[in-house]
Specification:
Blueprint (H helix, E strand, L loop, with lengths): L2 H7 L6 H11 L9 H26 L7 H16 L1
């Protein structure tokens, strides 16, 4: 796969209409600001980034060249505990 093919597959915009639709269906009584969906999208991206870093660290500690589901699950537990406070 060349760089131009990969670049075509990457979405450069946040899925704003999808997020707004999910908010309306799940919590119709909420009154959200106009850019709240972008903040939720950013929060999801940051979580995935932290999950990937922590999973890579777990795999490196176990001297494993491939990240498997056990590494991801352990990383998710750590990240969720940190986010709770």
């Amino acid at each position: 796969m060349t760089f131009s093919e990969v670049r075509k597959q990457i979405k450069w915009k946040a899925p704003r209409t999808f997020l707004k639709r999910v908010f309306k269906r799940q919590k119709p009584h909420l009154r959200l600001e106009t850019c709240a969906d972008l903040l939720v999208h950013l929060n999801c991206l940051l979580f995935v980034h932290r999950l990937a870093e922590e999973s890579r660290t777990n795999a490196f500690e176990n001297k494993c060249g491939v990240i498997n589901k056990d590494h991801v699950l352990a990383a998710a537990k750590v990240i969720l505990k940190k986010s709770r406070g």
